[in-house]
Amino acid sequence: MEHPDLHSAVTDAANDIAEMEIRGAATIADAAAAALGEQAESSAADSPEAFRVEIRTAARRLHETRPTAVSLPNALRYVLRGMRGDTVEELRESVVESAAEFRRELDQAQDNLGRIGANRLRDGDTIMTHCHSTDALSCVEQALEQGKEIHAIVKETRPRKQGHITARQLRDWGVPVTLIVDNAARRYLDEADHVLVGADSIAADGSVINKVGTSGLAVNARERGVPIMVAAQTLKLHPDTMTGHTVEIEMRDEREVLSLDEREDVGDVTVENPAFDVTPPRYVDAIVTERGQFPPESIVTLMRELFGDQQGGEPWDEPEL
Ligand code: RUB
Question: Which residues' Cβ are closer than 6 Å to ligand 1?
Fold first, then answer.
């Protein structure tokens, strides 16, 4: 069979995800679902089989962009599981609807999670954040809507400085923000009531995979007695970890760390640029999801309930009959 044409919505989304123009686990999932929907909508497939191949090829293209956030394969799997029908038209309609439904649920889950997480924040509390997480910010937004006053210490988050996005968003909501370099975090923990971060993936043992630097922050926070709260929709639960798989940590280009001039100046050294790290469950106080909040060690119970015996597998695998 010929290689199917991919819609520019898919190739553009894939490039933007790889280049981090689209970034953050929930936003990546949303963009991937939207792109699959557009592929279905504009498909010129002349048979149901050709249509299925086309959608699976699009899913593969989107999936190969970034390896760590499980929200991406979970989103693709959701949309592909909704693909049903005997004709191209039926298949098209089912994928378009499945993608739209996924996106609606994502929004709803983030709002519900925010309401649950906001209950942990008291009037006058100060949070310390790392990176930029829409799930984490949803908790702050809901706390503000409840009339609470919240202050924020925002880590800039090298090398990509996603902390600036967090700072801008909080400032727009009227939250007083203190921006600090990552290395100052331990000093400012004494002024924080919570560390509030998001997650790219949550493993079955309750480990939290998030932006590199999260684990060091969590260890320091534990030592200072500051509770660590992780805001993560169930979309971040990693089904493959139930059978012992580990989560791949993305290694990114050294140019994010050193400019070409700096590279020349520094000379022949090895540069490593892991984008994420793993925080063991003993450093996490609560994982807040749209289904309630959980001590990390008990997240596996929720995973069993949600995934049952079904394993993750590749999103484009043919369903077993
Ligand atoms: C983003 C990051 C965020 C999580 C959660 O990393 O680590 O904390 O993705 O975000 P990157 P959200 O900038 O490398 O994508 O809560 O929005 O899903």
Answer: 23-27, 69, 131, 133-136, 162, 198-200, 210-211, 275
